[in-house]
Design goal:
The protein has about 400 residues and is α+β, with helices and mostly antiparallel strands. The protein contains ten helices and 19 strands. Strand 16 and strand 17 form a beta hairpin.
Length: about 400
């Protein structure tokens, strides 16, 4: 049985469930799908900003250790930055900072993708003059030396006629590392993320920074031309190396000295509507470092915030029209001594039946505002392109 094909039927009597499928990193074709279901509500945690990190760590570790199952599904929203940088006072969104589900029932299966994926470009977006103006202002702040890079995002409201059909589209016709559908009470997240925030297995840590984007071509020849252009673009190379260095620094805070390594450097990976530069950074965790310390070292990912990270978060909160909510947080599984957290991008976010998609672009000193807006649209189309009868204006 393929769980994703029967998910609507299987979960019909459950208000709370978490579907999580992780594909192999090399080909992204062989996946392990797991479904967690619970008759009880999710555990939603919202601490006061500035709460003692030790208390949060004890709660997270104890939930993982005493749940009675090897791993539990978790979600961490962007609001979690207020526990890492309480002095910033980032706007709250209405999403929980941390949520998990203690399952009554867990089932798993294997998925093998057929290798098909979209190899075409979507319609060009209309000009987003307001966002272009924002990018110009951010570019000037970068050129003045205030910051090196900042990721700015915008929201796209959508209608979702069939959420389970969208999930099937992600599984069968995309080539992402993770596909998921979490329904925690009124909160829903359906996504197809190409990137992890951080993964932990024993003492081994992995981050896969993705930075540098081109759309897919209308045919193989144009697709290859765009890939070569991406690989040779100095602006994209600079942005990518900056974020690889940030990932190295994040892991360095919690790793044995000398163990942080870049094991894959700027490889092109192709997805349904975009192609990216991708690297892999690994390290060995220091003895005694707990899961929360790993999360706090890496959160939020540099690829959705910027560098230096703290200043980037402050600027993001000032310039973006609305709080990020779930976007750029993370979602995945936590167990005793293990953790696999997908970065929350390329996803649909819903509260009480109202849904949106959000996408961002990394701004550096040489960014072209119109091109960055097109990049946001291309990323959003990775999700919106799978939604039939999407809402007008998107």
């Amino acid at each position: 049985m393929k769980i994703y094909r029967e998910l609507e039927t299987i979960t019909a009597s459950y208000d709370n469930f978490a579907y999580f499928c992780r594909f192999d990193r090399e080909t992204r074709r062989i996946g392990r799908e797991r479904l967690f279901m619970s008759g009880s509500g999710p555990v939603l945690i919202n601490y006061e900003p500035g709460s003692d990190a030790k208390r949060i760590a004890e709660d997270i570790e104890s939930i993982a250790a005493h749940s009675g199952v090897p791993q539990i599904p978790v979600f961490i929203g962007f609001d979690f930055v207020n526990y890492i940088y309480p002095d910033l006072g980032v706007r709250e969104s209405g999403w929980p900072a941390f949520a998990c589900l203690i399952p009554d029932t867990t089932i798993e299966s294997e998925v093998i993708r057929n290798g098909n994926q979209g190899n075409y470009r979507k319609d060009e977006p209309e000009r987003d003059i307001a966002m272009e103006k924002t990018i110009m202002e951010l570019r000037e702040r970068i050129r003045s030396g205030e910051i090196l890079q900042v990721v700015v995002s915008r929201e796209y409201p959508v209608d979702i006629p069939d959420k389970f059909d969208l999930l099937r589209e992600f599984i069968e016709n995309d080539s992402s590392l993770y596909v998921f559908y979490y329904k925690f009470g009124e909160y829903e997240i359906i996504g197809s993320s190409p990137e992890n925030m951080v993964s932990v297995e024993g003492d081994s840590l992995v981050i896969n920074p993705i930075a540098g984007t081109r759309p897919r071509g209308v045919n193989d020849a144009q697709d290859q031309l765009l890939a070569e252009e991406l690989s040779a673009d100095p602006k994209e190379q600079m942005e990518h190396r900056m974020l690889v260095d940030l990932a190295r620094n994040d892991l360095g805070k919690i790793s044995i000295p000398g163990t942080v390594r870049v094991t894959m450097d700027m490889r092109i990976q192709k997805f349904s509507t975009v192609q990216h530069l991708v690297s892999t950074v690994t390290s060995t965790k220091r003895p005694g470092v707990g899961l929360l310390e790993v999360i706090m070292a890496a959160f939020p990912a540099g690829t959705v915030s910027g560098a230096p990270k703290k200043r980037a978060i402050s600027i993001i909160d000032r310039y973006e029209e609305s709080p990020r909510g779930a976007y750029s947080g993370c979602i995945g599984l936590i167990g005793e001594g293990s953790m696999d957290l997908a970065l929350l991008i390329r996803s649909v976010y819903g509260i009480s039946g109202k849904y949106s998609v959000r996408a961002g672009a990394g701004i550096v000193k040489d960014s072209d505002p119109e091109r960055e807006c097109k990049e946001m649209f291309s990323k959003a189309m990775t999700v919106i392109g799978g939604i039939k009868n999407e809402s007008s204006g998107n």
